[in-house]
From TrEMBL:
The keyword Repeat does not apply. It comes from Streptomyces kaempferi. Signal peptide: none annotated. GO terms for molecular function: methyltransferase activity. The keyword Methyltransferase applies. This is SAM-dependent methyltransferase.
Amino acid sequence: MTPTLVRQHPQHTGPASRVDSRVRARDWAEIQERMLVPLHEAVYERLEVGGGTRLLGLGCGSGLALLTAASRGAAVTGVDDSSPERVRLARERLLPEGHGTHTRGDARIVRGTPADLAGAGGPAYDLVTAFEPVGGVAGDSDGLVDVLEAAAPLAGRGAAVVLVGWGPPERCATSAVLRGVGRLAEPLRGGGGWRAARRDDLEEVAERAGLGLDGSGRVACPFGYADVESAVRGLLSTGLLDAAVAATDEVQVDKELTEALHPHRRPDGTVWMPNVFRYLIARTR
């Protein structure tokens, strides 16, 4: 499935450095989150997600992947401790309080970690997903290992655990853009700057978390934007350039991003970057 180009979006008011977390979360939900929909659908198809599936989404963000699973009949639970604004948007999408037509009565969204679900009762989860791609920020795998270890007791033995990572740099146009702009963070030692994905990133995370390996795949996920402004806002909403912003400021990062995106701008003004993402299916022991 090809992402839909975003044609309408709210305008910034004031300098970019004053954009608050609510705007960033909305940019994520309205511009960027959908870019990985082809990957979500490929994983769900391979694992035959449907009625009877109990899914735990780690780092669920604003809930689009959970909504996709729920539309297939799965009972979904999402946890996220990184952004209260994204969690609020996930609740609006999934909880049955009159937030539109895409509500699911068996959904649960928790701002926190898997530890906050302990003792909640109910059957064990048979699918755990971590759709936030590994390999974008130095040290990102360490926190994921801890989260996976906390989630494992909530899943049944042999439950599928899905990890996602960026594909080879030469097949990810966005990777080169982020790597170039991410160099602004180099003055911050260990500051969480961009790094290229390594071939065995996902396997290393799974093994460190005590999971068994059970297959992998690759999915094309092109990033398509209506214009350069949308692309800048979408990429900033990922958080992958936060270290660059901290090392300089958001105005400088906006400028660098705009320049880096120029080769990917098409004659009609849209921005198109082909990418490949990799997923790993692991199993609880």
